[in-house]
Amino acid sequence: DPRVELCLNDRLVLYKPPGWEVHDGFVPNQLRRFLQEQVGPLPLAYDQTHSFGFLHRLDVPSSGLVLAAKTYEAFYEMQVQLAAGLIRRKYLAMAHGWMPCSREVLASVSWGGGHPTRSGASGKASKTWFHVLARNAAATHALSLLSVQIFTGRRHQIRSHLAHIGHPLARDELYASMATLSADLRLRTRTCLHRFSLSFKGSTGDNHDVVAQCPADLLNFLLGIFDARDFPTELQHLVRRQG
Length: 243
What we know:
Helices cover 18% and strands 29% of the residues. It has 243 residues and is of the alpha+beta class. Pfam families: PseudoU_synth_2.
């Protein structure tokens, strides 16, 4: 279920479970309804022209942290942070292939109104940094577990950039080839993308760093493939079993 990870006077951080949509209304479980329950009759939470107060999204199959504003002043102030690259977002992702230890991708992302975006020479400038946490070559096909940071926020940026460099996200029904997706069905998991870290400034300029542990469904799958001891110390808490 969704939950509140951090609640401040004029902004809050929510956890979005897999299978939930932020606000577009294409699936029954809507994070905007949960937000409205938390903040009550605040006008911004019901204003579709301002994305109901949400500063960014996560795709339906993905999980992780989402930032929302309670007031219009906070919404515009955080949009400035977003445009200036002051809101940091980090993810866990699992991609196909044996990726190098770290890689920066600078490829413009364009979206023509259809579902997939295109990465290449045209579109909006986009930057993603990938760091390999672990690899597994003994599985049906080679897989790389990644820590990902985006420095811009384009539609499907991580998925599009991974496909662009030939390492599509595991179980990605939109950006992987049919042959890859058919092989992925054996993995018995969802799209392997989880936003685990969100850093931003509050209204008084103080820094806030919020972390969400890897959800149980993805955690159990990843620990069946990768050794948690391979994770760097600062990420060990993400793969620690609860209870």
